[in-house]
Amino acid sequence: MDLNSPSSAKLLTFRRIASHRFCFLSTQTIFSIPSRRTLGFPFSGVRCGAGVSAMVAEPRLVVKDRIDLTENEETIFRRLLDVVDHLKLNTQLRVAGGWVRDKLLGKDCYDIDIALDNMLGREFCEKVNEYLHSAGEEQQGIGVIQCNPDQSKHLETARMRICSTWVDFVNLRSESYAENSRIPKMKFGTAKEDAYRRDLTINSLFYNINTTSVEDLTGRGIQDLKDGYIVTPLPPKETFLDDPLRVLRAIRFGARFNFKLNEDLKEAASDDEVRDALMCKISRERVGHEIDLMISGNQPVRAMFYICDLQLFYAVFTLPENAQPEIVEGCNRLCVSHIDAAWNVLQLVGCSTFSDEQRRLYLYGALFLLLRNTAYTDTKSKKIPVANFIIRNSLKLKANDAEMVVSLHVAVERFISLFPFMESDREPVLAEVNLDDEFLDIPPTSRKRVLAGLLLREIKSFWRVALLMSTLLRPIDEIVGDSRNKESERRKEIFTNVERIITDLGLDNAWEVKPLLDGKAIMAVLQLKGGGPLIREWQQRMIKWQLAHPNATAEECFDWMQQSQSKRAKLDCCA
């Protein structure tokens, strides 16, 4: 390894953070671990793994003895067998992977992947159309996803509609990998070879359509499903080095089903060589997709605990090199602690309060809440929030996702400053109100409404998300007894009270309020011949006035504007 190369430097930096053997110190501000009161919720300071074992165990999933097909599945499989019989193909049709696992668990699954033992998927789709033509039925279009090693797509997959359902077709395969390459040497394989090349034993099961039977060719897939174990068919380090993304898939399925990770698997996942391979050999898009599935899944916190416990946090959530304040040891544990607290209070408030997208971004925002005031300097000497870097660069998610998380962090800070007023009957005094306008003359009884309304206009329909997130940073008085649940209850109470105040103030759709006067009317009052920044300035001032006077008419707004302009003209003359 060339220790002077940029990639080597990044790996060495990562290893120092992940192994806890080094601490970052500099003459600049150090990002210290917050206290209980700063965090707003307790953090035990123990390793992340303790959080996993401390989680409430869910009942084990019941594994069925047979697969019950839906009417649509029976129709699809009968049609495929008709093709084989009519054209005398001597082909074994097997449904592979997740569909078999989910059906044995009694769950619906609509992703049907057919593995073929003696032809390519595209060839079989052409046979389907040949059968449809002979039966006088309409032929279907065939979509072929070509091999694309650069995008980690190493095998051609064909897709077509069978009985109005999209079905994927691929051949059974045996793969081997060259050193330092993700491009496999692929050949037709047996069903057993194909089963052993899969990521986990619970995903290696087949349903043989020809024999209507489940095939467990690794000899332990069904038992691991019953026992709740995440195990690889081959030695885990070998499996992970073949495709390091399998580490994250193991974590995702372990969290999703509340299954226990095999000890050898955990040891391999924590191996320096595997972590380095995950950072260097797997595209950030693939990493981001797996993380997004975890965050959007049913157990996002358990998944993040696993990532932290296996020392993969900094391999997944890579950080910029010049972040200020510097990020030191313990940041990963605290980030996971934040999402844990966020998840707990969300369960009490009710997930139905938010849309799926709002819930997803709420959890991302909570995970990186600790980094809300940390930024780095990009190549154009621009300060960029570290949370933006992680979402855009580390995970390669949408730009809108990064922008919304950053906006949520900004809104959280503003909500925190509003809590003293929103949680009490007192109105903010003028010295506490920064409206950046000396001519507004907002009545004291309206200041709370104006401040809250301006915040909602910035964050729009995500204001409840920001409000709930801000409760995580609200200091809670010392609680005796079951502090974890009681603190979550207290945060729910804060959220509910402030939400009620905002809705009682009639601000729920404050971002939809338009200025009562258009640009032409403003120009008439100001006696201007053309537009410009002054028009925008008065429109912003007008919104503040309207928030203070929600029932005002356009005529009243016109009169107010004339009076304000007159005051300003007099002051300018005196000056």
UniProtKB/TrEMBL annotation:
Record's GO cellular component terms: mitochondrion
GO molecular function terms listed in the Swiss-Prot or TrEMBL record: catalytic activity, acting on RNA; RNA binding; transferase activity, transferring phosphorus-containing groups
Domain of life: Eukaryota
Keywords linked to the UniProt accession: RNA-binding, Transferase
Record GO biological process: tRNA 3'-terminal CCA addition
Domain Poly A polymerase head: 93-230
Family: Belongs to the tRNA nucleotidyltransferase/poly(A) polymerase family.
PANTHER family for this protein: CCA TRNA NUCLEOTIDYLTRANSFERASE, MITOCHONDRIAL, TRNA-NUCLEOTIDYLTRANSFERASE
Descriptive protein name: Poly A polymerase head domain-containing protein
